[in-house]
Each structure stands twice: as C-alpha cells, then as structure tokens.
Amino acid sequence: MFTLSPSRRSFLAAASAGALTLTLAACSGGSAEQTAPEDVKTLTVIAANSPWTEGLKTLATEYQQKTGVQVKIEAYGNEQLNDTYKVKLNASSSDFDVMAFQVQDVMREFSRNGWLTDMTDYVSSDADWDWEDFQQPAREAVQLDDVVYGVPVMTEREIVYYRKDLLQQAGIPVPKTLDELKTAVSTLNDPATGTFGIAMRGSRVPLVTQYSSFLYSFGGDFQGKDGEATIDSPEAQQAFQFYGDLLRSDGPPGVTNMGWVEASALFAQGKSAFYIDADSQAYTFLDPTKSSVVDTVGFAQFPAGPAGSKFYNIVPQTVGINEFSTKKDAAWEFIKWATSKENTARLLSENTVPGARESAWADASAAEAFPAELVDIIRNAGESGVGHDRPQLEQVAQAREIVGGPAIAAIEGGDVAAAAKDAQKQFQDLLDSEG
Question: Is 10 among the domain residues?
Fold first, then answer.
C-alpha cells in the first residue's frame, strides 16, 4: 500500500533533513562487501512499483560499479506484476533471476508450482548478513513448511490513528485496551457536529485484513494449528461482534461501502476521532496537501484484547529467486548485498522503506524520517506481531469474501453466531478443496 507521490517526496525530504547518509564507501565487512561470481555479467530483477524498488535502482547502479554486474530492473503495478510472473513462469522462463512478490497473495501458489527457489540454505549461510536480525514475524511470513522462499524487504502493521486534540480536550488518555478504545470512541462520537467516533473499513472484502488484529487480540485466528477453519470459534465471534459494534454505534453512515480510501479520507478531513488501519498510510495524514489533521494526528499501538495486543506485522513485498534462473548463486549475492544491514538502514533513511531488520529501526539516524511514535511501535512490535492479515490459502480472494460475511452481520446488527456458522462451513469447504 505504500505509494510515492511528489508531495510525499517533498515532505519526506524535509522530515529527513540531517538524517544519516550511508554510502557504500563507508561500508566495511559484512555482506555489503560481497562480490558476484566472475562468470555472471548481468542479472534481471522483476518487482512491483514501491519505495523499495525505487531505492533498488540506485543500489543496482552502485552494484555494477562495485562488481561489474549489470542489474536490470523491470517494475510493474501489482496486477500486471502477477500476470507477468504467471506468463513467464508457466513457460519455465529463465530470462529473469530475482523476483519480488507479494507473500500472502502468491507465495503458496508459486511454491506449489515449483516456481520459487528454496532459499533456506542461502539465508543461513552468512553469519555477518544475519538472518536472525530480521523481525520474527517477517521471517515466519516468508516460510512454508519450514522452507524459506524469500527475504522480506518491506513491512506493514495495523495501528491506531487518533486526534490528539480531541482526546486532550475530553481528558481521555490514549487507549491501551480494546475496552478503553470502545469507551473513548463512544465518548467522542458526535454526529451532530459531523465528527464520528471511529472510521474503519466496513466493506465486506477490504475489512478482513483490518479485522484480523481484532481477531488475534481476542485469541483467535482464521485457521487452527492443523489448518482447519476457525471462523465460528468463540474468540472469532467476539471479535466480529466487537468490530461490528464499533462501526454500527459510533461509525459514519454508509460504512459497509467503505474501504481504506473512503475511511481514511474521513479521518484526513477531521471527521473522525479514531482511524485504525495500516501504518503505511501515515504520511497521508502528514501531508498538508491531503490532510487537515497534520498537527493533531497521533499514532498508537493496537490496543490489547483478552489475548493481549496482537496485530498483523506483514510483509507486503519479499525478494526471492526464480527457480528457472541459471544464475541462482549470483542472484543470491545481489540479494544478500541489497538486503544487508547497511543497505537496509540506508533505504530506511533515504527512501523511507519500512524494512524488516531490527538493527535498521534501532538506528535513530536511519529511522528519524518516520514519526517518533510510529518508530516506537515498530521497535517494540516484538512478539506482538502476527505474520499474516488474512486467511492462509491460495484462494485468498474467495476466503476474504466468506470471512467478511459475519463482520457485515455484526455491523448491520444481525445474528453473528448464525453468520459465523455459515461462514465456517463455506471456509472449511474452500480449505478442503485445496487439500
């Protein structure tokens, strides 16, 4: 969901003034000093348009200067990217080597088809590069059945956005629990003045990813340890009811037609006291050309439920190796260099790429382009982060359609238990169809 815009670039340039500038010349030791195999002269990377890909273009130029290996980068929109992969990989194409992909949308399908290289030995081969430095949820997100299929290069979490001025005027502390959130939302809901207690996604499919953190914090998940559906568990039903009650009682009208675009716009316009969604939207609210809450927006960790504060900490983009590439070792050397501690911190500082390395976020100079409250949340994510924000199966679009049903029932004041029971059967049938 990260996108670059001229206004965001301008803001980030100002925000990061004085930030540490890391250069290759300053790097010493570690994986940043790796060289490519001598017989490889070119590598081709395919990736989605993103801040990481923009930063990679600079790194690619420097890698060629350092090793003599030319790195060609092809960047696409997400849908075009996936279509491109399927055409090429179905044909066992070896005309590209490094591939950046969306973990939760395609990794299961691509790995089943034999399109992704097993990178387990690669990531454990260099102690200085340090696989353990990557956040645990990010490492878990790029694995299936203990096989590593990529290196996480971007992360995203669900957080709470709030109006500092409204909370201060009402003498309300920043909610640390879901019960406190519910009370604060209810207190600040004032439709008569055009200010609602909370804005969130209420549309059936888009809401599923944001509902996930409520689900985890109530102690549930979409699937059990053995992969069975758990949509009608007591924890899931409580989470559905809580999510629906917030929007039905204290949300804006027409909420079941709202995705992140509509809900975030309400908060940006100052029409909502709270907004809960991905932290990748932070700069929308800090951009004076798009937001009226630039000086009043606050950031907080997802509130604790009965099971604690359990929020998604996902990998929207990871980088792996095409199984049909004839240059796998050379591709790994480039990936290892591009995702080193030094270069991850550099992209965090210069391109505001929310990387997955703990050491980069611990570097105050590298992280100072981000709001301090947001940096604290990311640094302290620890075991609170959950590495997925949707059901884990290949047919994820169909699964989201199913799971969104009980949430809609809750928002509309319907029978959540009956809707969850129906969704449970549909989701289990979908899981069974995948074996």
Answer: no
Indicate the burial class of 247 (C-beta count within 10 angstroms; 0-12, 13-18, 19 or more).
Answer: buried
Q: CA-CA distances (angstroms) from residue 265 to 271, 386, 434?
A: 9, 27, 38
CB 296 within 8 A of CB 165: yes
C-alpha span between 386 and 25 (Å, rounded)? 37
pLDDT tens sequence across 96-152: 999 999 998 899 999 999 999 999 999 999 999 999 999 999 999 999 999 999 999
- Whole-prediction pTM: 0.86
Same domain, 76 and 204: no
Task: Give every CB contact of residue 410 below 8 A, 6+ residues apart in sequence.
Answer: 240, 241, 243, 244, 245, 248, 416, 419
Tens digits of residue pLDDT in 382-408: 779 999 999 999 999 999 999 999 999
Does one domain contain both 254 and 298? Answer: yes
In a domain, 375, yes or no: yes
Q: Could you tell me if residue 96 is left (phi over 0), alpha (psi between -120 and 50 degrees) or otherwise beta?
A: beta
The residues with which 297 forms a beta bridge, in sequence order, are: 163
* Tens digit of each residue's pLDDT (9 = 90 or more) over 405-429: 999 999 999 999 999 999 999 999 9
CATH number of domain containing 126: 3.40.190.10
The answer to whether residues 28 and 102 belong to one domain is: yes
Element of type H or E holding 297: strand 297-301
- Residues 233, 343, single domain; the answer is no
For residues 182 and 227, the answer to whether their CB atoms sit within 8 Å is no
* Cβ atoms < 10 Å from Cβ of 92: 11
- The answer for 145, left when phi > 0, alpha when psi is -120 to 50, beta otherwise, is left
Domain tally, the chain: 2
Q: Residue 327 and residue 96: Cα distance in Å, rounded?
A: 9
DSSP per position, 148-211:
E--EEEEEEEEEEEEEHHHHHHHT-PPP-BHHHHHHHHHHH-BGGGTBEEEE---STTTHHHHH
Which residues share a beta bridge with 305? 308
